[in-house]
Amino acid sequence: MKRIALALLAAASAGAQPVYDLLLKNGQVLDPGAGRRGRMDIAISGKTIARIAPDLPPAAARKVVDLTGYYVTPGLIDIHTHIDAQGAGLNLNPDHQNLRNCVCTAVDAGSSGWKNFEAFKTKVIDHAQVRVLALLNIVGAGMYGAAVENDVNEMDVEAAVKMVKKYPDLIVGIKTAHFQPPTWDAVDRATQAAERSNTVLMVDFHPKPGRGYAELLQRMRPGDIHTHFYGRLTPQLDEHQRVQSYLWEARRKGVLFDVGHGSGSFWFRIAAPAIQQGFLPDTISTDLHKGSIMLPRATMPMTMSKFLNLGLTLEQVIERSTLNPARALRLKGVGTLREGGEADIAVLKLETGRFAFLDSGFGKHYGDQLLRCALTVRAGKVVWDADGLFAEDWQYAGPYSNYK
Amino acid sequence: MFSLMRIVFLAGGFAAVLAAQPYDLLIKGGRVLDPANHVDRIADVAIAQKKIARVADQIPAADAKKVLDARGLLVTPGLIDLHAHVFGYEGSIFPDDSALPACTTTIVDAGGAGWRTFDEFKVKVIDRSRTRIYAFLNIVGHGMVGPKFENDTSDMDAAKTAEKIQQHRGLIVGIKTAHFGRSGWTAIDRSVAAGKMAGVPVMVDDKITTGSGRASAEKLIEHMRPGDIHTHVFNDRQLEVIDRYTGKVQPWIWEARKKGVLFDLGHGAGSFLWPVASKAVQDGFFPDTISTDLHESSIMIQQADMTNCISKMMHLGMKLEDAIARSTIAPARAIRRQDEIGTLGVGRAADVAVLQLQNGVFAFKDAWGKKAVAQRRLDCALTVRDGAVVHDALGLAYPEWQKAGNYEVLP
User: Fold this and answer.
1) Contact A364 B401 (CB under 8 A)
2) Assigned superfamily of B78-343
């Protein structure tokens, strides 16, 4: 009540002093985490969301952006990315490959292990505009090729746990990936590290004889995440194209299934029947790297669009790209729009027409809906503005020049 | 048994088809725009063994392993970005994921590396990129690594720079001078001296500051040579293109152009201003080459990739044909690579851009983040680099998954 009175007061005296830095007006807010759906205004002061209400006065803000016709959601969370400062190896630039795609929180999925996490922190995390978090690779040297990734001696549980505990705000879980030997060492050690650091485990799994997918799911604990769910390596469907019963069982137990699209982990012929039978992903993520950004164009909006065109509702897609990833990785303060919370906001345009989407094998799916990132607000700042919603028309901007 | 027969049958059919398919890729029915060869008509472009094999009105679809329907689209030489940053400079970005989706198949790194660091650039970036990369070698031996180095005239060694160019004739196409913050002509003159020794052009990025002892007219007419390139043409702190009192293009800009100095866009995060550019084009002055100065910051709010820069030039009144020429054959000529890139001539490397001219309402932002609202935009639909499809926004190159069987990765 007091807050409403204050807002009214602000409105009344708005002519005198703007109280907000930025007012996002008239957007269709879609925030499953807060149960918000509908036309609403969002006011931002500094780095934080000051108010979310149906009709905030434009005069109360220094800058007003009209978002009529756009969806406004919490900044997207991509829990499976690979990022680097200058893009050495397969990794991508953190800022422009995320912020341009409305991703405000990017989780690097095991590019570094305990030996090189601190270098990753100094070189990338500390400089990135996008919020960067990490799943620590159980391999000490990180994702640096088969020689280290298949070496069990590289998997030091003690050292990994120590590193997680040193950076609890940045390292949100443990990752195991690419392990080829036919033993359970990688999964076991990663599980131990997750257990002992009280964090989440994300598994990229290559089944081998004697080390099958069904057994992996039995071993996984509630809350553990299997990424690359719609890939070709793991048998999701039986010979009648029915979702395997062990998948339903694992889901009941609480194992989470993540998309992790990438260049090798999303096939329409697996995703379409699974979704038809109601087996939706828990979280939508990209596994974006140099190999997946080009041809399958596995960015967040594109990956989300694929699921939209495979039958998920917009709300389901947004939920799986904001609230669910935040919950899966137990992230605080992201994934939902909250007064007093950091202003990470995605402004999405839902286009209709005829669009083509490619899977990891370049099979094409025609769809009639496309989600496009129109504007990104990260920590209160507009960092991407594809439709010029924030930008001022130069002809009304008065004279300006680099020659001061 | 049935399946075995089917395999034999398929294999036989496949072999027969192979024999009848001289082309790997056929881009059919697009408007082919190849300014260097004066081609502007609906035609088919066939590619074989990574080279342009044929451009003709009708090439049978059966002659190619893969056929792309480019009706309604533009087919041009792969775009050449004469000014981008993919090494050395702290804001440099990795080329492929920034260039190829914008139909840019060739990037010229504008001075990231100097003679001391070029070898590292080659190993770390050039050799690992799918994008074709050339370099303007910085006259500063350490390259574009901050004022401490860039202002150090003792690290501007013309002979060493020329020597490095001689060693890498295939990759180094010129010399760059940039960000020189001290007074006098040392940086530009050393660059030109090195350019003379190596027989290559110089690209100049040069701010006119109070006390710099440099002026635009003198720079263009007396210090730069025909064929040298001034980038950042619409940055009024670099070149006083517009007379502030009359609003007209300065006479010595025309004189420099007549002499053969080239003017490059070099958009960047600071060098394209609507008020400057619109006055220049009102007076009929357009840049010779369209380039991005793409780096970590200009790729964000300004979205200064090639198709965006071309769209901006078209919004200012440049004709489409002209804009394509200035982003293909003109930059190729500027770096004297017109016999290798920038055209769809038969026998050339198959670097091809398939572009879509869209109608709608689009906002294009300048270096100051101020927008102009336009009705047309050129967008990159598909990119062929060295004969391979590397970007395909419309799914032109691939079949529908429902009809493709149990594929792993489709060819």
Assistant:
1) yes
2) Metal-dependent hydrolases (3.20.20.140)
